[in-house]
Amino acid sequence: MTYPSVYPTGATIYDPDRCWNGYTIYQAREVGALLIDMNGAEVKLWKGLHGFPNKILPGGYVMGHTGERPNAFGLQDQTDLVQVDFEGKIVWKFDRWEFIEDPGEDPQWMARQHHDFQRQGNPVGYYVPGMDPYADRGNTWILCHKNVFRKEITDKRLCDDVIIEVTWEGDVVWEWACSDHFEELGFSEEARNILARNPNMVPCGGGMGDWLHVNSMSLLGPNRWYDAGDERFHPDNIIWDSRESNILCIVSKKTGEIVWKVGPDYNASKALKKLGWIIGQHHAHMIPRGLPGEGNILVYDNGGWAGYGAPNPGSAMGIKNALRDFSRVLEFDPVTLEIVWQHTPKEAGLVHPTDSNRYYSPFISSAQRLPNGNTLITEGSGGRIIEVTPGHELVWEYISPYWGSMMHMNMVYRAYRVPYEWVPQLNRPKQTPIRPIDVTAFRVPGAAPPGHKQVTAVEGVRPYQGDAALCVQIDVPK
Fold this sequence. Notes:
The chain is mainly beta. It has helices spanning 189-197, 224-227, 270-275; strands at 10-14, 23-28, 32-36, 42-47, 50-57, 61-65, 81-84, 90-94, 98-100, 108-110, 113-119, 140-148, 158-166, 172-177, 201-202, 208-209, 214-219, 238-242, 247-251, 258-262, 282-286, 297-301, 304-308, 319-324, 328-332, 339-343, 366-369, 375-379, 384-388, 394-399, 416-418, 471-473. The protein is built from 3 helices and 32 strands.
């Protein structure tokens, strides 16, 4: 699909009566952590606080990072993980995972954080009634990298995914590495052969295998499955997903064993075939207790290209051998694997399969269950964030106006909606409906042909006025 070169950005649709209203935080490309209201007004910017992702805590605190390791030496390695207050002052920091001595660079401690983290008090990093993340204490679970050689996988250097738990004081008290559990992941002989030859080699760091590319990690939290006696779903257990292998896993916090898994082969059972191939997915997590759908797995199933296995016409070498050119958001029962709810091109109102590729983000992206049953969906590659009802009605839409200079994209990795009360420093904003534009009547000024109505403004959109008081610069210690 070729996208139009001109289209509106900011909030374009808003129905206050059917939305779960609050602030939305996301990472504005190359700018910082940006907080917007339901009308798209930029109410707060933490300039220089980057996010992989940015998460907001009660009291107007925000988490993110202040630096990234050069790609010549690492792959998406963030130098630190920090928490700042409303004014941008760093009140908590972790960077002591690995001491790095890159050639030509100052030696330094690094977190090597990537893709996700969770603060104690809340299992998933977004608003859950009665489960507020701690802002002044508690442990933090962090998804990190470590370079390893594992001959049972390949003779090439691997960029491994590691989950660590650190105290408020910065002590690492628990560690779990994916490469230690290779035999539990269920790769076929064909997949193992491909991994041995090419474990998704990337040029970063002088060449290494980004073999799993884990992109989300969260705790399960209290849930009905564990209450019924299923030990696989202990509240302390951790769920993660691997973009490159199409695997979703739950790890026992107590034993380290993988106790639940979906993928990598979705033809392995009737239930998996019915679920359908999950490809290149992001943000797999268990919907927490207190939200509609609690206990089910919610995941943004990107489609695109991922997996290891037999070569096919779309993958001559058997790497990234599962292909699909549209996305879907899935909510499914982790025991039966039955789909409970989904948002696919069909539910989005597109003609399937002819027009399915219009609902498509082949990388990044996320889904958050809201307290009223709506779902906040980040279609990351196009910078689009939407809120849909259980009946698939689009009640809020926002397009990021921030493009990157190196990768000319307005992509949004992940967005979160939080209550207004979590940011008490701001006055509750006015909520003005935004009716959808009739695109058949919309014309750029001066371009409307005779006899056509010309629509040149969107009712209810309040553009950012550039109030410097709402922007803070993060002070990064030298």
